[in-house]
Specification:
Shape: globular
Subcellular location: Cell membrane
Bound molecules: adenosine-5'-triphosphate
Number of strands: 10
Protein name: ABC transporter ATP-binding protein
Number of helices: 15
Distance between the termini: 19 Å
Family: Belongs to the ABC transporter superfamily. Lipid exporter (TC 3.A.1.106) family.
Organism: Streptomyces microflavus (Streptomyces lipmanii)
GO molecular function: ABC-type oligopeptide transporter activity; ATP binding; ATP hydrolysis activity
Low-confidence stretches: 1-39, 313-321
Length: about 325
């Protein structure tokens, strides 16, 4: 996950302050805003209203070399793409229909986060095309991309701010009712209402200590408030006890309802629910299908399933610190 943000650090020593996790595609978009070529493209298009399809067609990509990035001025950064880097993705193709959930699985370093980074144009593909509703992301305005795509990670820490402030990040104009509605749907309303300071309770490392499951549900409350129609979700890796797991999973299913989702999946319940699972290995999609299709095929997915997704029983599961 840290790698998802690494390019920010590389790009933006100058003026973008990187908050390590949680939100932070807002930060990513600050970088996008530094890309004058995108922002000023005269004929830039908008993603039309309604649900959105996500499509990769023969996308190949390699990260730019470190020297190239550190030498680049901001203007040069605006035109940086992966040219010249070691290839990390090779002819990746898939299509998420509007409202579908795609799960990316694969071992560490396979290329899952890289696929996620190409959607908001943190980098551009060297070859092939990344499209939202059939429109190449290079032809979309930065504003439209920002309004359409949301990025959520569940492992991140919270900002040392009130519950309210953490939630308003997702939708600054949310009303008190909207906030409570999101908390209710993420099954956190009871807890927050019981705290002496309610919504003004400061959370985060030095504040009120939420449990792992509660933190995950607070990120889901943010997702419920956010308006973006496409969600890129990097799931939490922490195992929860089975009661918390069920609560998190129900809330997540509700939050993703009606949106198109690309999920870097770490949970069995997610891969089971996915419309399509893509098995990524060394930058290629080596298998695709539903959970039951892939298990029946008895290939790489089945192996991954045994090592990554089959969980110890609830009694053995480690509580989240
Ligand atoms: P994980 O599950 O560990 O997060 P992943 O499947 O998301 O892994 P990626 O992070 O996409 O894998 O990494 C794919 C390859 O790209 C790896 O070889 C990695 O070392 C390389 N890589 C990732 N980020 C960068 C970067 N910013 N610069 C150079 N190489 C990178």
């Amino acid at each position: 996950l840290t790698r998802l943000y690494a390019p920010l650090t590389a790009l933006a020593g100058a003026r973008v302050e990187v908050m390590s996790a949680f939100v932070s595609f807002e930060r990513v978009f600050e970088v996008l805003d530094l890309k004058p070529l995108i922002a000023r493209k005269p004929d830039a298009r908008e993603v039309p209203e309604g649900q959105v399809s996500v499509e990769f067609e023969k996308v190949s990509f390699g990260y730019p070399s470190a020297e190239k990035v550190s030498l680049a001025s901001l203007e040069e950064v605006a035109t940086l793409d992966g040219r010249g880097g070691t290839p990390v993705l090779h002819e990746v193709s898939f299509r998420a229909e509007p409202g579908q959930m795609i799960a990316l699985v694969g071992s560490s370093g396979a290329g899952k986060s890289t696929i996620a980074q190409l959607l908001p144009r943190l980098y551009d593909a060297d070859a092939g095309s990344v499209r939202l509703n059939g429109i190449d992301v290079r032809d979309l305005s930065a504003d439209s991309i920002r309004d359409t795509l949301g990025m959520v990670t569940q492992d991140g820490h919270l900002f040392h701010e009130s519950v309210r402030a953490n939630l308003l990040l997702a939708r600054p104009d949310a009303s008190e009712d909207d906030i409570w509605d999101a908390l209710r749907r993420s099954r956190l309303d009871g807890l927050i209402a019981s705290l002496p300071e309610g919504l003004d309770t400061v959370v985060g490392e030095r504040g009120y200590r939420l449990s792992g499951g509660e933190r995950q549900r607070l990120t889901i409350a943010r997702l419920l408030l956010a308006r973006q129609r496409v969600v890129i979700l990097d799931e939490a890796t922490a195992h929860l006890d089975s009661t918390s797991e069920a609560a998190v999973q129900e809330a997540l299913a509700e939050a993703l309802e009606g949106r198109t989702a690309v999920v870097i999946a770490h949970r069995l319940s997610t891969v089971r629910a996915a419309d399509q699972i893509l098995v990524v290995e060394a930058g290629r999609i080596v298998e695709r299908g539903t959970h039951s299709e892939l298990l029946a095929a008895g290939g790489r997915y089945e192996e991954l399933y045994r090592t990554q997704f089959e969980r110890p029983s609830a009694d053995e599961a480690q509580p989240v610190a």
